[in-house]
Design a protein that fits this description.
Layout (H helix, E strand, L loop, with lengths): L6 H28 L10 H55 L7 H22 L2 E2 L2 E2 L26 E5 L2 E4 L4 H5 L6 H14 L7 H47 L3 H25 L4 H5 L1
Antiparallel strand pairs: 1-2, 3-4
Length: 294
């Protein structure tokens, strides 16, 4: 069947072409203004879906980053506390060795050692009750004001640990076991120092306490090694998180952002094409007598 080409058909065809040119021109202008490749899901459903997925991963990554920062704060605080605790315990041992020299130590000298040991015990108790952001770092999830009270009772529990999720499939413990570090009650390092002070006051030899001091120091060093391992793990997680953040931002930019120079060039070409279409249409579709008779 042969279709007759009329002025009306030519006009409709020209209008469709002009409308298509105008829509493309409007799309490029919107891209150049927003500098986004996607302004609505209908622009590119597949890219819009990828964009939503990537942004969800970015939000999760941001939360992991906050968890890593918080975990680093906990572990750094604990590591510093244990380093101070180790230094204090070395001093406790040195003083105990001096106090064990009964032949060369006068009662006044022993009393001076006992006084310093009491001060060291108070400092150790302060270290054991160290807090980070209002939470005791040695008491797990306990909401008690301190990990150890005046009677050296422990407020935490071995199963109540503080953990932070640092990845989709990985968590890390960020607190330390106060009971394993300092002991509890009469078996604590605090009670041990009290006993040494009492023996010095009573004139008893304190050399027999050295092995117990060494046992406590070993326990503290073990906890320090555990915390050091976790610290190294979370530092690796921080590095991996930074790399993942950069990668996700690159993926997002590839999907959402535009090459501004390319879009501006396309926009200029489209403007030329639209102006040319207008000119050609005006030349081809000249008014006829019938247009005026209508």
């Amino acid at each position: 069947m042969i279709t007759r080409t009329t002025t009306s058909l030519m006009m409709q065809s020209a209008q469709r072409n002009l409308k298509a040119n105008m829509q493309e021109l409007a799309r490029l202008q919107e891209q150049a203004t927003s500098q986004k490749a996607i302004t609505r899901p209908s622009d590119d459903p597949t890219a819009a879906s990828d964009s939503l997925r990537i942004r969800a991963e970015q939000r999760a990554s941001e939360q992991y980053g906050r968890n890593i920062d918080d975990g680093l704060g906990w572990l750094t605080t604990i590591d510093s506390t244990l380093a101070t605790t180790t230094s204090l315990m070395h001093r406790v041992r040195d003083l105990t060795v001096r106090g064990a020299n009964d032949g060369s130590m006068s009662p006044t000298a022993k009393q001076a050692i006992a006084t310093e040991l009491t001060q060291l015990k108070d400092e150790l108790l302060t270290q054991a009750n160290t807090q980070y952001l209002g939470r005791s770092v040695f008491a797990g999830n306990s909401d008690a004001a301190s990990a150890f009270d005046a009677a050296y009772a422990y407020s935490g529990a071995a199963a109540d640990t503080v953990e932070r999720r640092i990845g989709a499939d990985s968590k890390i413990r960020v607190d330390a076991n106060g009971a394993a570090t300092f002991g509890v009650g009469g078996a604590s390092v605090f009670a041990l120092i009290d006993q040494i002070v009492a023996d010095l006051g009573a004139g008893n030899n304190v050399g027999g306490h050295l092995n117990t001091i060494d046992t406590h120091m070993t326990a503290i060093r073990n906890q320090q090694a555990i915390v050091g391992t976790r610290h190294a793990q979370i530092l690796r997680a921080e590095e991996a998180h930074m790399e993942n953040t950069v990668s996700l931002e690159g993926q997002r930019a590839a999907v959402e952002d535009i090459d501004l120079a390319e879009v501006i060039l396309d926009l200029q070409l489209q403007e030329v094409a639209y102006q040319s279409a207008l000119a050609v249409t005006a030349r081809v579709l000249q008014p006829t007598l019938m247009d005026f008779l209508r």
